[in-house]
Amino acid sequence: MPTTKTERLDIGRSDDVVRVRQLTRTFAVEVGLSLVDQTKIVTAASELARNTLDYGGGGEVTLEVLDQGGRRGLRLTFEDKGPGIADVEQALKDGFTSGKGLGLGLGGAKRLCNEFSIYSKPGEGTKVIVARWK
């Protein structure tokens, strides 16, 4: 799938979560997403960036503007080298948390996006890929 623009950000501090939100909003506007879809992808990006920081010990996000035969979208890939997720299926259930949160982050991010995939292995880290299409 052709990528027309790519940018990578490190996620290592709380300020970086704000930067991820801001850049996601900028890319979403550029893609031409509606205000509702902008809000959905920005909210998902915020949740996933926070998880990357809090549970993965930091990592990075790659933002890509996609063009698939005139169909435009935004893909975000979050990666960390943290402890990983032992039970991904359980982690996607609302109410499950391994920390102090409400347990809505991963499942909520999944519901806010058109595409969602997660790869995680204990001791090796986690990779979450989401996309929102116009």
Describe this structure in words.
The chain has a single domain, classed as Histidine kinase-like ATPase, C-terminal domain (Heat Shock Protein 90). It is built from four helices and five strands. It has helices at 14-31, 35-54, 88-91, 105-112, and strands at 3-11, 59-68, 71-80, 115-121, 125-133. It has a five-stranded antiparallel sheet, covered by helices on one side. The longest helix is centred in the first third of the chain and has 20 residues, at 35-54. The mean pLDDT is 90.
> H/E order of the elements?
EHHEEHHEE
- CATH fold category name: Heat Shock Protein 90
Classification by helices and strands: alpha+beta
Quaternary: single chain
As laid out across the biggest beta sheet, the strand order is 1-2-3-5-4
Q: Terminal Cα separation, in Å?
A: 15 Å
Number of strands: 5
Please give the radius of gyration in angstroms.
Answer: 14 Å
Q: Could you say which overall geometry the principal axes of the C-alpha atoms support?
A: globular
* Count of individual domains: 1
